[in-house]
Amino acid sequence: MHKELSPAFVQLKNEHGPLRQLMEELYEQAVTMGKTGDERSYVQTLRSLEEKVDSFLLMLEKHANREEVLLFPMMYTLTGGENGPIAVMEEEHKEAKQHLARFKEKMSTVGLSIDKNTAIITADPVAKAYVVLSDHFMKEEMVLFPMANQLLLEEQKDELERRLTEADRKK
Fold first, then answer.
1. Hey, which of 8, 77, 101, 103 would disulfide with 125, CB 3.0 to 4.6 Å?
2. Full-model pTM
3. What is the rounded CA–CA span in Å between residue 165 and residue 120?
4. Nearest residue to 140 via CA among 3, 14, 1, 4
5. Burial class of 100 by CB neighbour count within 10 A (0 to 12, 13 to 18, 19+)
């Protein structure tokens, strides 16, 4: 039996679109790092990547927060607590953020010029975050949201939708 997702899950799923789009741009820039250019252009490319990462982090933080504060607590005990899928989802959020923090940390040491290998190594955590999040979004869309849609009571889904809408108004 396949139930249509309630509006709250549709909203969370739709938030993946813009995140995925920016994430793909970040990934492309990260994996092509060092393919062309010189020591100065590597720095410019990394700085450009850093700006995009900063924008992405703001979007990701907002989305992850909505899941961690509103959805995950509702699902936690229903799905096995610390051994269940919610614990895995939280861990993946943390892992992706750690990769991006590692990139930001590496960027803090970049000077006016940088060699090709250092540029590639500096950008690598961005590619790693992409891999984690791509898999994570797929799991949410294919497993978590449909599971939550099945397990949560209608009142809980309505409450989640109300709280998501409330959070949007507070922007």
1. 103
2. 0.90
3. 41
4. 14
5. buried
